[in-house]
Design brief:
100 residues; alpha+beta; Alpha-Beta Plaits; 4 strands; globular; Dimeric_a/b-barrel
């Protein structure tokens, strides 16, 4: 399981990225082996410009390879068309495992 925390330039850009672009990522990421468990936007002042996604992938998956294939794909280009990726200030990736 992977948690991705995107910090964007401001709240308005975060809302646009959340609504417009993550709706497309949700459709295309499964084509590359990812399952999107959920996507949220910060709802308090300290995190209002953050978008948080929780995705899973098969055990022993080459997550870096999967990510690279997606980011080089026409699907990714389409998903992010019209979005200035420089407005993403930081991406934090956390790899999680179940407590069970």
């Amino acid at each position: 399981m992977e948690q991705l925390i995107y910090t964007l330039a401001n709240r308005e850009i975060a809302e646009h990225y959340f609504k417009e672009h993550w709706s497309k990522h949700r459709l295309n990421l499964p084509k590359f082996g990812f399952e999107v468990k959920g996507v949220w936007i910060g709802n308090t002042p300290g995190i209002a410009k953050q978008v948080v996604a929780l995705v899973s992938f098969p055990d022993n998956a080459d997550v870096n390879g999967m990510t690279e294939r997606y980011m080089k794909s026409p699907e990714y280009a389409s998903d992010t068309a019209g979005f200035d990726r420089n407005k993403i200030i930081n991406v934090e990736t956390l790899i999680l495992r179940s407590a069970s």
